[in-house]
Each structure stands twice: as structure tokens, then as C-alpha cells.
Amino acid sequence: MDNNLLKRMRQGDHLNLGERIRLVLRLSIPAILAQISTIIMQYIDASMVGSLGASSSAAIGIVSTTTWLIGGLCGAIGTGFTVLIAHRIGAGEDREARKCVKTGLITVLLFAGILMIIGILIHKELPKWMGGSEEVLKDASRYFLVFSLMLPIMQINYTGAGMLECSGNMKIPSMLNIIMCFLDVVFNAIFIFPDRTVDFCGTSLTLPGVGLGVTGAAIGTLAAELVGAICILLAILKFSDKLHLRKDEKDKMSLKEWWESIKISLPVMLSSVIMGSAYVVSTRIVAPLGNVSITANSFSITAESLCYMPGYGIAHAATTLVGQAKGAGRKFLCRRFAYLSIIIGMIIMTAAGVLLYAFAPRMIAIMSPDEGVRSLGATILRIEAFAEPMFGASIVSEGVFRGLGKTGIPSILNLLSMWIVRLPLSAYAASHFGLVGVWYVMCIELCFRGIIFIIAIFRTFHTAYK
Q1: Per-residue DSSP letter, 253
Q2: Residue 81: enclosing H or E segment and its boundaries?
């Protein structure tokens, strides 16, 4: 049904409000489920590592913001190609879309290779730069080394999923993501723990294990990502109706088209640097507060992800819908899909915020047996719950801007919000109020970010997309 509605939209048919809502939800739900499954598996991963002790969790936590920064860059470099695919398909130019696929995959893999080399070169020193204590340095550096080695594999998953989504296929990336998350847990159980005996329904079972601890968590993720990368390549290059390669099509993107894609990607990369480096600085601000605060901060971010992952699912749908509507020359539908997506995102994340407040203690308890981590984590999660509606507005708005190809606007807004508002206030709050103060600042900043994104969306559509 969603493909039929997308086809009608591209053909210029009228879509009533119910059909537009149905289209947004049907494209969003698979992505939301995939995002939620990812976080659930991260919960399980965190509980596995957390069972090894607070120092093991802190070893991952101290480099986690750097991995987010690099992961954000990997996701960003492919944005221009995925947006161009949405525009080409919306305009009925499927062959041009396939040219974007071939050139895009080559470009992003070269980029990931460069990042991999940089990661290998800095893996020993990074935990020291981040202010990690002596007891976490060895595990943290090994974890980051394995993460760096899997960057080309992660890159295929990021860009490949985006290409399929922008072609209108949300289900295959979502299913593969769920499978990959399940495999991540299985592989982590094997690589983190040594051989052990467990009791299952009165029967003793011996489970195999390698016993690599924190390093095993990274290797388990690498193995799962490898399976996902193979499947996503097959889905694009062989099985996708619109994107699979044809033997008679030997042409590639022109240099002009390639640069057009890169120009869309560059502001997204800048935004990733702005946000990722801000998170790195935030970790550096939190690090002097001790391992309990580092762990509570890291676990609470993972827990909060359950709330905002639905927002990212809706943002993916918004990028697809707005991008294809723009490619089809339907400005009115661009505006309608943008506003509708933002409203739905805010409603869903408001409900998620209520659940976050109610279940905060239980969510943290799943990941850590440490009472200090549990108490502090529950407190800061309940603070953050109040920011979820406006955080949702900013997340979905950024997806709308990507669909339009206007990726520079979110970069400017994120720079203003993170570096002018959050970080200076966080540095002050950490020294006076500890981690609780840092999360109060985060709540205020996210509300501010949502407001300025809504204003920017309104001004964009009021002037150019009536």
C-alpha cells in the first residue's frame, strides 16, 4: 500500500489527510521498530559489559562519544547520494538514481577507509585524551581499535540502508537491522564471556565463550555488522526493483552530479562534527566526576535513546517523503508532509517521555547492578523526560531539511544550540552541581533547539514552498 501511495504522489495524484498520515506512519513504523530494536540490544550489551564491573563500563563510556562522532561522519557522507536518489526517483529518473548508487558506494568506502586509518593511529592515546583513569585505558584503547577496523563495514550499512529508504523501501533495512542486533547479542555473549555453565529449566548447559571482556563486545558488534553489510549489498545491487544494477548500464555520475551530492553531504558532516565534538567535550566535562558519573551518564544516554529513536524513524520517513515530493515538483505536498511528520514526531516522543519518567529506575537497573549508578541514572533520566517533545521536533525537522537538500540550515542551528548554549552552561553546572546539573542544562538546551528548528521550518516553507 505504501508503494502505491508513493507512486500516486509521484504521478501528481491528490492525497487526502488520511492518506498522508497513513503514508508517514507506514514509512516510519519499520524504521522506528528497527531503531528501538537497536537500543534494546544496546541495553543487553550494556548489561553484559556492566556485569564485568563499573570500570569495564567506563572503558566503553570514555570513548563512546568519539565513536558517535565518527559514526556520525560515516552516516553523513552518504546523505547527499541518498537525497539525490530520492529526488531522482521522485522525478521518475530511476536510471539516474542507479548512477548515484554506484558512485556513492565507492565514495563512502574510500572515506571510511581514511577514517579507519586515523582511528588505528590514535587508538592508544584517545582514552588518555578523554581523561580516562589508568584502570580503563587498556580496555578502552582495544575497544576503539576494533571499532576503527569495522568502519568500512559500518559505512556500507549506513549508506546502503539510506539508499533503500530513500527509494521507498523501509522494510528491508529495518528487518536487517533487527537481525543484526540479534546477532550482536549472540556474538557478544560468545566473545565477552569465557566458557560457563548456566541452569536452564533444571538442566545445566555449557555455553562456549572466548572471554575477551570489553574487547569482545567490539568484536561481537563487528561480526554482526559484517553479516548486515553483506545482506544490505545484496538487497541493493541484486534485489531492489529501482536500484539493482543492470548489465547494460555502464555509466556513472558526472563530476557535476558527484559534487552536487557532496555539497549536500558536507553540511551534514559539519553538523556531525559540531554535534559529535560537542559530545566529546561533554564527556571530557563529565570525566572528572568519576567512574560512577561516567557510567551513569553513558547508560542514561543509552536509556534515553529508547525515547528519541522513534523520532529518528519518523525523520527517515520525512526525508523520503519530502525528497520524493520535491523531485516530483509537488511543493504543496513537501510542506504538508513536513508539518505532518513533525507533529507526529512530537506526539510520539511526548508519550515516550512520559514512559521514560515512569520507568527510569527500572531502565537503569537493567544495565547496572551498581546502586550508585542506578540512583544517579534514574534521577538524570527523569530530568531529560521533559525535553522529549521538543527534541522530537528538532530531530524530525532535520530529516525534513535533508529531504529538501537544505542541509546547511541544521548545521548552523546545531552549532548555535550545542556550542553557544549547552557546553558553556554544562561546564559551569558540572563544577557546581555535578552530573545532575549537566543534565538540567541538556534538558534546557534540547527545548531551545526544538524551538529554533520549528521557527526555521516555518520560515523555509512560508517563503519558498507555499
Answers
A1: -
A2: helix 79-90
On whether the CB atoms of residues 363 and 303 are closer than 8 A, the answer is: yes
Answer yes or no: are the C-beta atoms of 143 and 216 closer than 8 Å. Answer: no
Region 332-358 average pLDDT: 92
**In this prediction, what percent of the chain has a pLDDT beyond 70?**
92
Question: pTM higher than 0.85 for the full model?
Answer: no
CB within 8 Å of 228: residues ≥ 6 apart: 153, 157, 176, 177, 179, 180, 183
Burial of 86 (0-12, 13-18, 19+ CB in 10 A): buried
- CA end-to-end distance (rounded Å), the chain: 28
In this structure, how many other beta carbons lie within 10 angstroms of the beta carbon of residue 437?
A: 18
Q: Which residues of 393-413 are buried (b: 16+ CB within 10 A; e: fewer)?
A: bbbbbbbbbbbbbbbbbbbeb
Residues 265, 270, 275, 277, CA torsion sign = positive
Give the C-alpha distances (Å, rounded to integers) separating 51 from 222, 227, 281, 405.
21, 27, 27, 45
**Closest to 388 measured CA to CA, from 299, 333, 300, 306:** 306
Task: Please say whether the beta carbons of 374 and 365 come within 8 A.
Answer: yes
Helices 371-384 and 291-327: crossing angle, nearest 10°?
Answer: 40
**Cell triple for residue 32?**
522506528
**Alpha-carbon gap, residue 318 to 1, rounded angstroms:** 17
Q: Say if CB 292 and CB 376 are below 8 A apart.
A: yes
- pLDDT over 90 percentage in the chain: 38
Q: Cα separation of 27 and 25, whole Å?
A: 5
Q: Are 364 and 336 in contact (CB under 8 A)?
A: no
Q: What are phi and psi of 258, to 5 degrees?
A: -60, -45
Residue-wise pLDDT tens digits, 243-279: 988 888 877 778 888 998 899 899 888 888 888 788 8
| CA dihedral of 372, 373, 375, 376, whole degrees rounded to 10 | 110
Q: Contact at 8 Å (CB) between 221 and 49?
A: no
What phi, psi does 454 have (nearest 5°)?
-60, -45
**What's the one-letter identity of residue 223?**
A
- 398: cell is 532535520
Give CA separation, 264 vs 245, 334, 453, in Å: 24, 18, 19
